[in-house]
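Many introductory courses stop at the sequence. We go one step further.
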Amino acid sequence: TSNKKYLHMSNNSEIEGTDRVLSCLPYLIPLLDGERYGKYLFYLVPALGMADSILLGPFKAIYSLIPFAQLIAFIGLSVLSRNPDLPRPVRFNMQQALILDITLIVPSLLGQLPFPIPALLANSGSNCVYLAMVASVG
């Protein structure tokens, strides 16, 4: 009975196929923003880099053509995630994608430290960030 109560409270007894697709789309933003952390992994595993360029290549092209695309996407997701007319799962996933995108700022700040970080540590850290981001999106 408590499960039915929870479903009733969320106003979503069943998630439709279109909502599932719409719920996945916001995760393209952290994938595109966090791809730079996978460059060492792509060097070690060229097939992974090839898969990344095939799957995300068209989105990267569009993303790079539009000036301030990252800012526009971030603000757009932030505004849309508060729209009560959108289904709850879609709004939830928008918020999760925003949080994931914000957390990708921390590793880039660590890369700006005034003292050099050993290459092995920087490469390993970059790989870990990329794998954690992909695992979170997955």
